[in-house]
Every structure is written in C-alpha cells, then in structure tokens.
Specification:
heterodimer; A: 252 residues; mainly alpha; MetI-like fold; 79% helix; B: 252 residues; alpha/beta; Rossmann fold; 3-stranded antiparallel β-sheet; 35% helix
C-alpha cells in the first residue's frame, strides 16, 4: 500500500472517537473507547470469525442469486419484446415495497436459517442488477447493429457478440451497487430472526449491554463489505480494459 | 500491392421506381438508379439530400415505401454486400484481428485467420493486429474497418463517407489503398468530397433536390485511383464544386 491516505483517515477517526470518550466521559456501556473495542476484537476473535462466516456466506449467495435472477430477467426483457411491458411494471412495483418490512415475512416463510437472509439479499439487489443490465442491453450502438445486419448476423449471435459485451459497463455499475447493498439485506434478515451471523451477534450484544462486542462486530461487518466492494471493483476494471476510466484519480 | 482477388461481379444493382418518405415529404420519388457491376460509382450531393438514406436502402437497412432494389441476375442482394460507414464501428473490446473477422463469428462460421492476417498486412496493420482499437490512430482505425469490409469478400461494397473524418494526407493515402483493394468489385461510395469521387469513381453522379434526382453522370478517363496531380482532375473538381455550390444556393 503506497497510498497512506486511507490509513490517515482511519487514524483520524479513531483519534476523534477516543477524544470524544475522554472529553464527555461517557460511560463505556454507552460508547466504549476504541482501545476497549480493539481488545474485545482480539479476545472475541474466534466468536466473531464464526459469525462472520455465516454473514459472508449469506452475502455471497445473495449476490450470486441476485445477479443470476436479475441477469435472466434483463435478458428476457431484451430478447423477448412482449415480455418487457409485463415484467418492467412488476419490477418497478416490487421496488416500491420496503424490503425491510418484508423481512419478518421472509423469516416466516424461509425459516431462521440461511435461506431467509439470502432471499432478503436477493430482493434488495434484484432491481439494481436488472435495471442496469437491461438499460445496457437496449443501448447498443445502432452503427454496430447496422453492421451486424449487413453481415448476416442472427439475433442470438448479435446478442452474444455485440449486445452483451456492450452492456458490460452498465452491468458493472449495477453490480457495484448490488455489492454495496447486499450486506444490508443479510444483516436485516439476521436482526429479524436468526441463530447466527454478525447481525445476530450485534443484536444480542446490544441486549446484554456488551457494547464493545457490538462495535467489534460492526467493524468486522464493515471490513467484509469493504473487501467485497474492492474485489468486485477491481474485477470489473480488469474485465473491461477497453472501457476507459476517464475520471482519473487525483494525484496525491 | 495487388488487388484483392475478387470475382468480377456479372450483375448490376438496380434501384427501380424507388420512393422513400421522410415524415410527410418525399426524400426520393420514383427514382431509378444503377450500380454497374465491377465498377465504382460515386455519389455526390449536399448534406441532407438523401445520399445516406439511398445507401441504407440498398444495404437493406431501411425499407422503401415503394419500388425495389434488385440485382440483374435475379438473385437477392442480401448476403452479397459489405457495408462500411463513416464511423469505423470497431468493437472496442476486440483486438484488431478479431474485429476484422467479426463477420464470420456473427454468422457462426470459422474465421479464416490467414486471410485476415493477409488483409491486415495489405492494410499496413499487421504490427497492430493484437491491439485494441482505442490504441489506434484515426487512419489506422479506418484501415482496420476497410480490412474488415474486405474480409467479408462480397461482390458489392457500400461505403458511406468512409474517409471524411480523416486529415487530408491520411485520406489521400487511404483512397489509394481502398481503390487498389476494392478493384473489380461493385462499389457504391457516398461522399461529399468531389476530389475523392474524381479519384475513385468510374462513374460520378450528383444527387440534388427535394425529392432528389440523380443526374450529371461524369466518367473520368483512366482507371482509379487517379493521380492527384492530373490537371484535368483538378479542373473537374472545380466544375463539380461550382455545381454543388449552385445547388446549395438554390436551396437557400
């Protein structure tokens, strides 16, 4: 890591936190100092790791399912014009239902285990993935389509060789959003009813006033979300070397 | 450099009684127009007169309101033409060589890599074969598009202002290259540059008016590509420019 800025920001935030605790002398069961959270992070590491695995699995399965289902929906709409006027309103209507309100119902239907959290994550990322890919698929450059027609291309080959690659950057934007919000789906699902996961751990630590443990779980969750996002972002940039990033990074 | 080994087309392409509406007005009405087999026909005319529309109609990209496009041998033109537009239409995610062999992939055929390499060599792009289009200059991109057009190996080639976006020197070079590589095919070149038409065309026609008429057939002496230093060529360019300017004044 050659760029020290993220570390500096982190250090600054930690100092601010510690300073706040010193100045206000707020009791540790309301706001524990970062040192207490750090020591708890170390002492409860095996416990945190166990629950983190559960949450990570939920997020990954949710992402996979959401991308598969969302991608299929977008492809159906792009390929079968009669499907679009039926599916699109349902899609938008579905998006207006607050997913958080659905969480208890999902737990009722799919149980306390993995399934309800995965369903929750899928629900939350289905719309951004579908909308982004569909938008990309219907915006193929008309010049390329003309060329394909004069070359005698079939509908399917045009889709595979032209529309799909051309839609990748748009799909990438949807996938980035999905990666950022998928952890929310998993954790909300855990809050409503579960027997494991970081959300479950946080809920219980909160109830027992183990605020340092709650903060430790929160930090692990943030680390997971951040690592996932960075991984997906790098993957997308590497998969599309031809799509230039024209907003170049500011020089430090 | 020797001409690409194209079989001499033994048929003409005829546009008969063609009418095309644009909104309520007729862009062309009851138009007859012939592309003689094995010859290069250049069409000049002010912008907006319908040159590109006529080209798209012949390419089968737009339907006629009335009339037909037919080949004098009675067989359909579809599948026997190649298309090259003003923009190179290179796919940014494919290397140059894969762009050149795009047609085969879109039809589900095996691409003839040896032939593609040969064409790239003739176009002076062999060294760039594994590069992405974004790394090429404007002239190189258009040469790649020319190689892709020739890769199709069709008796009829339709070109819509293929060199208009290039600087004068690059354009002059590419005209020679195109004339050499396209020799023997039925070529229809739409352009707004009288000099380009005079260098490349066996036959030059001017499209004017609303609805448009096609008239003023010029058949310059000697085979294309004609030398830029030929005084007769330059005198003719002056005449043609004056003719086109007259048309523009009438329209104003």
């Amino acid at each position: 890591m050659s760029n020290p800025r993220p570390l500096l920001i982190l250090l600054g935030l930690l100092l601010l936190w510690q300073g706040l605790v010193w100045i206000t002398e707020v009791p540790a069961f309301l706001l524990p100092p970062p040192t207490a959270v750090a020591s708890r992070l170390a002492s409860a590491a095996p416990l945190l790791l166990d629950h983190a695995q559960v949450t990570l699995l939920e997020i990954l399965l949710g992402l996979l399912g959401g991308v598969l289902i969302g991608g299929t929906s977008a492809l159906l709409m792009a390929l079968l014009p009669p499907v679009q006027p039926w599916l699109l309103p349902i899609l938008v209507l579905g998006q207006t239902i607050p997913v958080f309100a659905l969480a208890p119902l999902l737990v009722l239907w799919f149980g306390y285990g993995l399934a309800s959290k995965v369903a929750m994550a899928i629900l939350i990322i289905y719309f951004p993935v579908t909308a982004a890919l569909f938008d990309g698929l219907r915006r193929t450059d008309p010049g390329w389509l003309d060329l394909a027609r004069t070359m005698g291309a079939t509908r399917w080959r045009t889709l595979y060789h032209l529309r799909l690659p051309a839609a990748l950057p748009a799909f990438g934007s949807g996938l980035r959003i999905a990666t950022a919000v998928a952890p929310i789906g998993a954790v909300v699902g855990e809050w409503v009813g579960s027997s494991g996961g970081l959300g479950y751990l946080m809920l219980h630590a909160n109830a027992r006033l183990q605020i340092d443990l709650m903060f430790a779980a929160l930090i692990v969750l943030m680390a997971i979300a951040l690592a996932l996002y960075v991984a997906v972002d790098r993957l997308l940039v590497r998969a599309m070397p031809w799509a230039p990033l024209t907003l170049t990074r500011a020089q430090p | 450099m020797h001409p690409a080994s194209a079989p001499q087309p033994d048929f003409d392409v005829a546009v008969r009684h063609a009418s095309l509406r644009y909104g309520r007005a007729f862009l062309i009405q009851d138009l007859d127009f012939v592309l003689p087999g094995g010859h290069c026909t250049c069409l000049l005319g002010p912008s907006g007169v319908g040159k590109s529309s006529l080209l798209r109609v012949i390419a089968g990209l737009e339907p006629l309101d009335r009339g037909e496009v037919a080949c004098t041998d009675g067989r359909p033109l579809a599948g026997r033409l190649a298309w090259m537009s003003q923009r190179d239409d290179l796919l940014p995610w494919l290397q140059v060589i894969d762009n050149v062999t795009l047609g085969a992939r879109l039809r589900g055929e095996r691409a003839d890599r040896a032939k593609a390499l040969d064409l790239l060599e003739r176009a002076g792009l062999l060294a760039q074969r594994d590069q992405l289009p974004a790394t090429l200059s404007g002239g190189q991109r258009q040469r790649a598009a020319l190689a892709r057009t020739l890769m199709e190996d069709r008796p009829v080639v339709l070109m819509d202002e293929p060199f208009s976006a290039l600087d004068a020197i690059t354009r002059a070079r590419l005209q020679v290259l195109a004339a050499t590589l396209l020799a023997g095919r039925t070529v229809f070149l739409v352009t707004h540059d009288p000099l380009e038409a005079l260098r490349l065309g066996h036959r030059i026609q001017v499209m004017t008016g609303h609805p448009a008429r096609i008239e003023g057939t010029i058949e310059p002496a000697g085979p294309p590509p004609r030398d830029l230093h030929d005084p007769a060529l330059l005198a003719r360019q002056g005449d043609l420019l004056a003719q086109l300017a007259d048309v523009r004044d009438d329209a104003a």
